[in-house]
Amino acid sequence: MNKIRLINLSIDAEAVKLVSPHIIRRNRVLPISRTKHSITLAMVQPLNHQTIDDIRMVTGLEVIPVLADQQEIDMAIRQFLAFRLDPDMEKILGELRQDMKKKTTGDLEIQSLNVDDAPIIRMVNYLLRQAVQVSCSDIHIEPQEKDVRVRFRIDGELYEVFTLPRLSLPAMVSRIKIIGGMDISEKRIPQDGRFRMMIEGCDIDFRISTLPTSNGEKVVVRVLDQSQALTGIDRLGLNNRNRKLLMDLVHRPYGMILVTGSTGSGKTTTLYAMLKTIDAGAKNVITLEDPIEYSLEGVNQVQINTRAGITFLGGLGSILRQDPDIIMLGEIRDQATAQLAVQAALTGHLVLSTLHTNSAAGTVTRLAEMGIEQFLLAASLVGVISQRLVRQLCVHCRRQYNLDQETAVGMGMLEETGEQFYQAVGCNMCRQLGYQGRIALQEIMLIGSKVRTTINQGAKTDDIQTAALAEGMITIRQDGIAKARQGLTSLEEVMRVVFQEE
Question: Which of 327, 376, 418, 486 is deepest in the core (most CB within 10 A)?
């Protein structure tokens, strides 16, 4: 055997195709290059002779093992196999197409596939497993005029994985409805469901939404992997100042803390991270959510159920009779709920919730527009966290550069001319995208004396923003530029997510 050496992965995509995805995942190996007579194999355990012999048999080539970092090889496997159909999947697709031919005469569809057909069951199971393996957040099953498009949302972007025969749609949707506890006979109205499945040793929750369209029912399956999503405060990407502020906020004895941002900006993840820092053994923590996305140990979680009369307003009233110390509301949606949340904060409870606003300062204005008097806001609100998600630069291919004056002027960043930043390039490790994963940009507005006085005076958003800046608030824009300078993200991402709102 050749001498084993530790390497940083640089991968030839053609070499990967020589070994089946099943073998790659099972043995945590990845072919990285080949010659006429040999294949170089990155391995977590390069002394595993059985694996080496198996791959020698499969490829007919001499195997040269090299040692690779476990985390790096796991990430590379996810990236490379994200959109590659393994032999099992190709077999399933072949069976579906054969069934379609049998059940179609010319252009006339006789009937759709049956929900109990083995290929359909295996197709759905494959799809769910693949989504988890590539850290997909949402599976989109979309009926088109001639086929069915399947897409994965990864790091906030949608990617087409494959297409399916048109006849497979009804059976596929029915199969998903069955495991989600939904009504398979009802196709005219939207439905919601959820289920849990064990995949690769982890309990994964899936949330289903169906929607009737002109081409058939569209399905979106949200993938809720607790091992990936329930992060601690240290993994939220906070700068040092904001981390200290957040820790101070979450340990306040009472008051209202709001997390704001657009849909998909990670608000719920931040709320859960905050709750995880609280000693649930010493506090009575109750949440009211729609839906409950993840289970929190020691926390009393209540699911909204409008049919049973459990609404945000009614549920909050019931929670207040349960002697709570800390209350988490999934969202403040109306004036009545906002008023009750404010009253709860004023009467000795710590209330955490979310709101859809574009900035921390704008949150006060939004609540005032909902009918909450500003002197009550000044008394009850203790802090607002506003955040956005941006794609994180791939550390394997990001490229350093100095910002030229013309670009700086175009971005409104003349003062940053000549400063060092990083740009996306693209490599095999990131599917040529230049990005891997996402991080949050935040601004945290504490309700200090200046901000409180400004709110009490009935000031508008700009005045509240000015007071917050005077008390040291770092804006999302400033946080974004700082993280771009560190190489965590690019200026283009910061501009896309933050600058366009200004």
Answer: 327
Single-letter residue type at 269: T
In one letter, which amino acid is 499?
F
| Beta strands at 147-154 and 138-143: parallel, antiparallel or unpaired | antiparallel
Distance (Å, whole) CA 272 – CA 86: 36
Q: Which of the 8 DSSP states describes residue 115? A: T
Beta bridge partners of 34: 39
Residue 153, strand partner residues? 138, 158
pLDDT in tens, the chain (502 residues): 445 555 566 677 678 878 877 788 788 888 888 888 999 998 888 888 999 999 999 899 999 998 887 777 877 776 666 656 555 666 666 766 666 666 554 443 434 556 555 778 888 988 898 888 778 899 999 999 989 999 999 888 888 888 888 888 998 999 999 999 999 999 999 999 999 998 877 889 999 999 999 999 999 999 987 766 556 787 788 899 999 999 999 999 999 999 999 888 889 889 999 998 988 889 999 999 988 888 888 999 999 888 788 888 888 999 999 999 999 999 998 999 999 999 999 999 999 999 999 899 999 999 999 999 999 999 999 999 999 999 999 988 899 999 999 888 888 888 999 999 999 998 767 777 888 888 999 999 999 999 999 999 998 999 999 999 999 999 999 999 999 999 999 999 999 888 655 5
Nearest in space to 328 (alpha carbons), one of 357, 360, 290: 290
pTM for the model stands at 0.76
Cβ–Cβ under 8 Å, residues 384 and 493: no
Spatial separation of the C-alpha atoms in residues 346 and 381, rounded to whole Å: 9
Cα 54 to chain centroid distance, Å, stands at 37
Beta strands in 262-349 (DSSP E): 285-289, 300-303, 326-329
Residues 6+ apart with CB under 8 A from 106: none
Question: Amino acid identity of 502?
Answer: E
Residue with tokens 């997390």: 259
Judge whether 198 and 204 are in contact, CB under 8 Å.
yes
Q: What whole-number distance in Å separates Cα of residue 291 and Cα of residue 139?
A: 18
The pair of structure tokens assigned to 36 is: 């006429």
Taking the C-alpha atoms of residue 298 and residue 252, their distance in angstroms, rounded to an integer, is: 19
Q: Cα separations (Å) of 148 from 90, 142, 143, 144, 175?
A: 16, 6, 4, 5, 15
Own/partner pairs for 273-277, CB < 8 Å, 24+ apart? 273/230, 273/231, 273/232, 273/233, 273/235, 273/236, 274/233, 274/246, 274/249, 274/250, 274/352, 275/299, 275/326, 275/328, 275/352, 276/230, 276/232, 276/233, 277/232, 277/233, 277/247, 277/250, 277/251
Closest CA to 221 of 179, 258, 250: 179
Question: Concatenated DSSP letters for 174-207?
Answer: HHHHHHTT--TT--SS-EEEEEEEEETTEEEEEE
